[in-house]
User: Which sequence fits this backbone?
């Protein structure tokens, strides 16, 4: 006769059920600090002419259940034109005011910040004993 005795199964079930909330609570602070650091880096990278671009960088954080989301946005009116550039611009009277070249600032920094946060989340999961494979 063959048998199997599993010691610690009830404890393992308890730990597995608690794992999502444990990881989520550990990740809330990291998400917020990453968002704030990224916002600071974006604001510092903006050209300082009037200060409106720098002053317009905002961080909004939402936590719903096990999910935390941080949004870093540039709310200045001309943020999109600064980021992507503009075509030829004219006044209402028809005077040419030039074209503005794009200066990608927010998007490249957000892409890198998201990668860093994903790596940190994977490290947290590995520390909890999970096997994680991250695709680049």
Assistant:
């Amino acid at each position: 006769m063959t048998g199997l005795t599993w010691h610690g199964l009830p404890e393992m079930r308890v730990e597995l059920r608690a794992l999502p909330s444990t990881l989520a609570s550990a990740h809330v602070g990291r998400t917020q600090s990453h968002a704030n650091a990224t916002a600071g880096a974006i604001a510092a990278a903006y050209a300082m002419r009037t200060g409106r671009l720098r002053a317009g960088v905002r961080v909004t954080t939402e936590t719903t259940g096990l999910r935390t989301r941080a949004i870093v946005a540039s709310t200045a009116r001309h943020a999109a034109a600064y980021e992507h550039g503009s075509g030829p611009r004219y006044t209402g009277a028809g005077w040419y005011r030039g074209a503005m070249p794009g200066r990608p600032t927010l998007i490249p920094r957000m892409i890198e910040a998201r990668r860093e946060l994903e790596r940190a989340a994977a490290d947290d999961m590995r520390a909890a004993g999970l096997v994680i494979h991250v695709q680049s």
User: Anything to note?
Assistant: DSSP finds four helices and four strands in the chain. Residues 21 and 66 are 6 Å apart (CA to CA).
